[in-house]
Amino acid sequence: MIGGRPMVALSALVSGLDAELVRLGYKDSTMAWYRGCWRRLQRYFAARGAEEFSLDLAMAWADEACGFFAKEQAGTLKQTDVYLFRVAQMLGDYETHGAVLRRYSRTVSKLAADDAAAVARFGAWLRAAERSASTVRSYGTLAAEFAAFAGTRGGLARCDAGMVGAFVATLAGYQAKTVEQKLCALRSFLRFASQEGLAAPATAERSRRCRPASRPGSRRYGTRPTWPGSWKRSTGAARAGSGTTRSSCW
Fold it and tell me: What is the pLDDT of residues 171-224, one digit of tens each?
């Protein structure tokens, strides 16, 4: 047990993350690279008699593989070193949230026709309300991300507080201001969806109270700190308080 959570077998974690990355549309060449890294990581765990995933051990693997932390201190990190570090980091985040965090996903998986149409109508709804072009664009992107996420959990019709909370958890690691902007977009989309009969009105109401936790004074929403330097900067602080930033949402 870690923090009250049962530990997960590394093989199961890798299998789940593999399936999720494929679902998100990662290229075959990218998947081949990830799978090669996962095999090396699994051999590293097996050599140490470890079957269950440990973020500390995964980070030790990344450090031994490329001398990550020494290079970071010396300012000589290469992009390939950062990618290797992210292999361990992504597994840790997937273990915590059961989803690929938004900061890793550079594309939105293909939407079902109905969801794509709903996102398009949402954009028209925003334009009719005379929202700026940048707002229409950024809110539309978030709406597509959420619709794709909901599609893996039964669709918008089954959207509830649990689904919204699971999606918000995937925002860990973003700057607090960015998270708040995305939450504003999400609330707006859920209001639209409830008006259209695509989601229950109660869901839109609950989303107004949905805020991820952060440590007071922290500029990021995130998970747990374990390693120094970039590890803390990349994943954010442990969720130990309720400090938030506030901005107006319409």
Answer: 776 778 888 888 999 999 999 998 998 887 766 665 565 555 443 344 444 433
Say how far apart CA 228 and CA 24 lie, in whole Å.
30
Question: What global pTM score does this model have?
Answer: 0.55
61 to 13, 85, 90, 127: CA distances (angstroms): 16, 9, 14, 50
Q: DSSP states of 193-230 as a string? A: HHHTTSS-HHHHHHHTT------TT-SB------SSTH
Q: How many CB atoms lie within 10 A of CB 172?
A: 23
Please measure the distance between the N-terminal and C-terminal CA atoms of the chain and give it in whole angstroms: 42
Alpha helices in 152-200 (DSSP H): 161-169, 176-195
Separation CA 22–CA 91 (nearest Å): 15
